[in-house]
Amino acid sequence: MRLQTERLILRSWESRDHAPLATVLGDPEVRRFYPTVATPEQTKAQLDFSIERQAAAGFHFGAAELKSTGQFVGLIGLGYISDETRAAIRGQPPVEIGWQFGKAFWGSGLAPEGARAWLDYGFAVLNLPEIVAFTFAGNLPSQRVMEKIGMVRDADADFEHPRLAPGHPLRSHVVYRIANPSIG
Ligand SMILES: CC(C)(COP(=O)(O)OP(=O)(O)OC[C@H]1O[C@@H](n2cnc3c(N)ncnc32)[C@H](O)[C@@H]1OP(=O)(O)O)[C@@H](O)C(=O)NCCC(=O)NCCS
Asked: Is the pLDDT of residue 32 over 80?
């Protein structure tokens, strides 16, 4: 899988992505709305899982690189929602869109640019009926990306993240959705 936007290359994971991905997911500022930073070992397990899903199902998020320099920007794309989390979301959607970029790349619209290309792929190529996104209610930058790409908040679908204990400060999640425009 390889897509191009004006400034980005979006591609399938490769094992060489481990070190730069571990830097992004190990950064406390990038992970400020997650319960923990990811250790390099956790990133390796996540990457191995994504590569396996990619081989079995065609995609599971992916890497973003800057077209002009080849620099690794971060993780973005469509991914399968775990059974446990899916069960907590109204309508039990199978596929989400998500993003985590290195902070050197924040603030110039790169995430919405990449996300629009992934939405197009999800609708035109994969024929998905809808795509959802969810995040901690306090993660306003991520919700801005959802809004910029035309997703709409579904307040009735707000949920408490099942992987976090009751009372955890990051437990409350909001859901945004977008329907495939070519499926009436
Ligand atoms: C969410 C994220 C991918 C946005 O990427 P981006 O390429 O910066 O997106 P944009 O440039 O469109 O900016 C989106 C919003 O981020 C915020 N933002 C921009 N620059 C920022 C910075 N340097 N620091 C903090 N927030 C910033 C602004 O609210 C902006 O909205 P605005 O354009 O209306 O001002 C990025 O902030 C990120 O990787 N965050 C950490 C990981 C994360 O929380 N992922 C989402 C998990 S659900």
From this structure: yes
Q: In sequence order, what are the residues at sequence separation of 6 or more whose Cβ sits closer than 8 angstroms to the Cβ of residue 91?
A: 157
Q: Is residue 44 part of a domain?
A: yes
Q: Is residue 11 part of a domain?
A: yes
> How remote is the CA of residue 58 from the centroid of ligand 1, in Å?
27
In a domain, 184, yes or no: no
| Alpha-carbon span 88 to 160, nearest angstrom | 8
Number of domains composing the chain: 1
Report residues whose beta carbon is within 6 angstroms of any ligand 1 atom: 30, 33, 98-101, 106-112, 135, 139-142, 144-145, 148
Is this model's pTM higher than 0.90 or not? yes
- Tell me the best of 32, 75, 81, 142 to mutate to test the pocket of ligand 1, counting ligand atoms within 8 Å of each CB and taking the most: 142
The domain containing residue 40 runs over which residues? 2-179
Say if 131 falls within a structural domain: yes
108 Cα nearest atom in ligand 1: 11
